[in-house]
Structures are given as C-alpha cells and as structure tokens.
Specification:
Shape: rod-shaped
Largest sheet: none
Radius of gyration: 16 Å
Order of helices and strands: H
Structural class: mainly alpha
Number of strands: 0
Oligomer: single chain
Mean pLDDT: 82
Strand content: under 5%
C-alpha cells in the first residue's frame, strides 16, 4: 500500500504527460486535416 501511494504521484504525472502529448498530436493532425496548410 505504501509503495503504491508513494509511486502514484509519479505515475499520475507520467500518464498525464502521455495523454496530454497524444491529445496535442491528435488535435494538431485534425487541425491540419480540416484546414490544409497554405
């Protein structure tokens, strides 16, 4: 229990960073598809 609680902050930050990065990449690709680069 103590190990999981101690590692939760780091795991949460890594998971949040991965989700945020994927979201940014997907959003960027969708934006390029909707509005083609000039």
């Amino acid at each position: 229990m103590n190990t999981s609680i101690g590692a939760s902050p780091l795991e949460f930050l890594t998971a949040y960073a991965l989700v945020l990065g994927i979201g940014v990449v997907l959003g960027y690709r969708l934006a390029l598809r909707r509005s083609p680069p000039l």
